[in-house]
Amino acid sequence: xxxxADQHTERARDSAARAGEDGRFxxxxxxxxxxxxxxxxxxxxxxxxxxxxxxxxxxxxxxSLHPNVARHHLDRLSAGGYLDVSLERAASAGAGRxxxxxxxxxxxxxxxxxxxxxxxxxxxxxxxxxxxELLGPEEAERMAERVGEEYGRVLAEKMEPGEGQRSLxxxxxxxxxALTAHGFAAHAEDRGSAxxxxxxxxxxxxxxxxxxxxxxxxRGMVRGLxxxxxxxxxxxxxxxxxxxARGDDACAAxx
Length: 255
Prior knowledge:
The chain is about 55% helix and about 10% strand. The protein has helices at about 1-35, 40-50, 55-65, 65-80, 115-135, 135-160, 170-180, 205-210, 215-230; strands at about 85-90, 100-105, 185-190, 195-200, 240, 250-255. The chain is globular.
């Protein structure tokens, strides 16, 4: 009887330990989701790690963001414990107000939640791709493009007031900067009367190669950004997309 009771107690203890580990893992995932759920925020974190002491203005310049938008991302990372903040006054500022300077928290590599960031992104993209495939090729293409277009419009709305109604060429150059901030490493190329945005890197990684339908998200983002920046409303803007995942020489959007 005593032996049976001991075994029951040990099983209960093991079960409680596993529950505790699951709870800690869930909390870690929740923390990563809150802090790094936005792809721009992940890139900003990596930037600050390599540029300690950065200010919101400097981050905004690096990612073509308004300083207030950059500050929001930085403060979210700080609230999650991933960045340390200090108030410092520049030597040339005289008696002016000190600025917030951001640095990666001590030993961020030792934080197990940071290691989940890349894995989580890859998992989400892979699940998205598989979900799209269930819709069938035509509906999946429409759905992916619609999602990208809506997100592109949201991005355009976040740009500084007064920057609307750009020319098509100026808008394409702005779009290249916006896509670069989202991990595409893009640049604009003027090709006679047309302008192309060429992406040197795909943030969707291997998932796009395995599921080329994801490339429709890129086309939608470009179209949504164009509609917002050029104030085209619901007027369709033709975007020709080439994709390495589909056998083309480069990933580019031509308008």
